Amino acid sequence: MVTGIGDDCAVLRVPPGHEMLVTTDFTIENVHFRREWHRPELVGRRCLTRGLSDIAAMGGEPLAAFLSLAVATDVPQSWVDRFIKGLLDLAAEFKVPLAGGDTAQSAGGIQADIVVVGSVPKGKAVLRSGTKAGELIYVTGELGGSAAALARLQESKPVGAEYFRHFRPLARVAVGQWLRQRGVASAMIDLSDGLSTDLEHICQESHVGAEIEAEAVPRAGVGLRKKPVALDLALHGGDDYELLFTSAKAVPAEVAGVRVTPIGRTTRSAGIRLIGADGKARPLKARGWEHFKGNL
User: Fold this and answer.
1) For the domain with range 136-283, which CATH number is right: 3.90.650.10, 3.30.1330.10, 3.40.50.300, 3.90.79.10?
2) What is the chain's percent helix, strand, coil content, to nearest 5?
3) What Å distances lie between residue 273 and 64, 82, 277, CA to CA?
4) 186, 191, 196, 197 alpha-carbon torsion, rounded to 10°
5) Predicted confidence pLDDT, tens digits, the chain (296 residues)
6) Would you list the domain boundaries of the chain?
7) What is the CB neighbour count within 10 angstroms for residue 211?
8) Residue in 220, 216, 199 with CA at minimum distance from that of residue 142
9) What is the spatial distance between Cα 77 and Cα 73, in angstroms, rounded to a whole number?
């Protein structure tokens, strides 16, 4: 970054031989969070994580972030200060400067729009459209932990530190870069909308189908006994911010300190099928996050 906050525009410098990545994501009260459930610092962290995770899914390096924040008159300044602190703390962890943005008064509630700018070597961005039939499908980390926490919140049940995946998700930037640098991932997406929905995005863009082994899906362990979450939460819950990718190459069981699990393969025949423990294949419909539906 050449010039940050203080002028009408930030001035960014993209490294020679690189292309710019730009992503934007809304965080809206009562859609993505509720004040009574989520501490403002964690809302700020989650807001930036959404953008960083998109950069990770392209194998890129984040360069700068921009925040536009609109709040209603009933939102105390202390809430805003704590939100900004959470966002800036995470930005410092990833060495991503907050280079600009805007503030405004909203007609109701809180609305935050995060823009993250990154870079990737020319022609090397990992797209959703790069896989072919016969490649293996992988996911990082564990799935369903965030959805399990949300389910408990909706039922007014206590949510302790063991449900950290919902409150403090971590963008897999280092994993995405490792996969891109070694040419391992042929197609990739971050798991924000749910495995079933995000896998469908890859299949549609790459014109392939997929088969997933139900028993292979890595489910988060929650509660004091670390009981695996229900399979439906892992398949459709979303908000995990793990990476889903395909590859025809050898993939290690751990990348940048993060577990990587093969869960299926791409196919020539369209559609997504779930292979149960009995070996039978059943259609897997995309039932993840639906925008404009109000999932929270």
Assistant:
1) 3.90.650.10
2) 30, 30, 40
3) 39, 44, 13
4) -90
5) 566 677 778 898 899 999 999 999 999 999 999 999 999 999 999 999 999 999 999 999 999 999 999 999 999 999 999 999 999 999 999 999 999 999 999 999 999 999 999 999 999 999 999 999 999 999 999 999 999 999 999 999 988 777 888 999 999 999 999 999 999 999 999 999 999 999 999 999 999 999 999 999 999 998 777 899 999 999 999 899 999 999 999 999 999 999 999 999 999 999 999 999 999 999 999 988 665 454 55
6) 18-121, 136-283
7) 18
8) 220
9) 10
* pLDDT at position 291: 53
Number of residues in the chain: 296
The yes-or-no answer to whether 18-121 and 136-283 have a common fold is no
Amino acid identity, residue 254? E
Amino acid letter, residue 175: V
Residue 292 neighbours by CB under 8 Å, 6+ apart: none
Tokens of 74: 């009933």
Q: Which amino acid is residue 136, in one-letter code?
A: L
* Domain 18-121, CATH number (from 3.30.1330.10, 3.40.980.10, 3.50.50.60, 3.40.50.620): 3.30.1330.10
Percent share of the chain, pLDDT over 70: 96
Cα 106 from Cα 4, distance rounded (Å): 25
Taking the alpha carbons of 196, 209, 178, 126 in that order, is the dihedral positive or negative? negative
Eight-state DSSP code of residue 248: S
